[in-house]
Amino acid sequence: MIGLGLDGYDPDSQHDAAVAFRIRVVAEEQHIPQHQHRKGQLILALGGAITCEVENAMLMVPPQYAVWIPGQVPHSNKATPSAQLCFLFIEPGAVSLPDRCCTLKISPLVRELILSLASRTREELQLPATSRLVDVLFDELLQQPQEHLQLPVSPHPKIRFMSERMAEEPAEWQTLAQWAHHFAMSERNLARLVVKETGLSFRRWRHQLQLIVALQLLISGRSVQQAAQSLGYDSTTAFITMFRKGLGQTPARYVAGLSRTSQ
């Protein structure tokens, strides 16, 4: 299956420079297993959130952000319940977007251009007006800033196991010492492994994962206090400090901003 709610649509069956679909996720389609396609794919979250996993990273975006996945990159998608998404498939070579997966902050103009494209019929896609719209969209896409809403992971079994377990039970797995004991390794050797495989220290890597999980919890309706407790923070203030350091705002202000821009 290629995409959520696309009824078996194969994006590689057409050679349009760009084609878009607006999607509302239903319960049985929250998770799409690993797949790939020739076209590049931009997944824009309109409401709710989506997490994409690729070989060396987990990328999560809240509303008004997007994940960019270049063509031929294997990936899987997981959306929050009732998420509203927009899929933009781009023909290889049509626009010079990054050659690696990344997260982008999407401007209101780009959002509306993508939604306009998604509303067009197959016949309308062939019109000169649509070509002009796509040209403007491509020009604007190149200006969208990259954000750091991704967690470096790797195929290494220990790193993969750690990322999955910490995402599922963040309050239970807090320290390097816990993991070193679990793997029967010294803390120093495990710390070196994390740096080698992810490029980050264990502390920074854990904080980045916590940030992604925190966003998922907050967007799903959890309070700041509940999110802090779920992540194992004894102090809500410490959680807010971690969040603000990662995203530049307090959790309450950040989520309030997402609610305003998604309306």
Describe the structure.
The chain is of the alpha+beta class and 263 residues long. The protein has two domains: 137 residues, Jelly Rolls (Sandwich), CATH 2.60.120.280; 107 residues, Arc Repressor Mutant, subunit A, CATH 1.10.10.60. Helices cover 40% and strands 21% of the residues. Strands 1-8-3-6-9-10 form a six-stranded antiparallel β-sheet, covered by helices on one side. The protein is globular.
Itemize the secondary structure elements and their pairings.
Layout: E1 18-24, E2 31-35, E3 40-47, E4 50-54, E5 57-61, E6 65-69, E7 75-79, E8 84-90, E9 102-105, H1 108-118, H2 128-141, E10 146-147, E11 150-152, H3 157-168, H4 176-183, H5 187-198, H6 202-219, H7 224-230, H8 236-247, H9 251-261
Antiparallel strand pairs: 1-8, 2-7, 3-6, 3-8, 4-5, 4-7, 5-11, 6-9, 9-10
- By DSSP (H or I, 4+ residues per run), the number of helices equals 9
What's the architecture of the largest domain in CATH terms? Sandwich
CATH superfamily of the largest domain: Regulatory protein AraC
Distance between the termini: 30 Å
Structural class by secondary-structure content: alpha+beta
Number of strands: 11
Radius of gyration: 19 Å
Which fold name corresponds to the CATH topology of the largest domain? Jelly Rolls
SSE succession: EEEEEEEEEHHEEHHHHHHH
As laid out across the biggest beta sheet, the strand order is: 1-8-3-6-9-10
Note the overall shape.
globular
Structurally, the number of domains stands at 2
What level of helicity do the residues show? Answer: 25-40%
Write down the overall mean pLDDT. 87
The fraction of residues in strands falls at: 15-25%
Low-pLDDT windows of residues: 1-5
CATH class of the largest domain: Mainly Beta
Give the biggest sheet: 6 strands, antiparallel
Domain HTH araC/xylS-type: 156-257
GO molecular function, one term: DNA-binding transcription factor activity
Pfam families: HTH_18
Keywords: DNA-binding, Repressor, Transcription, Transcription regulation
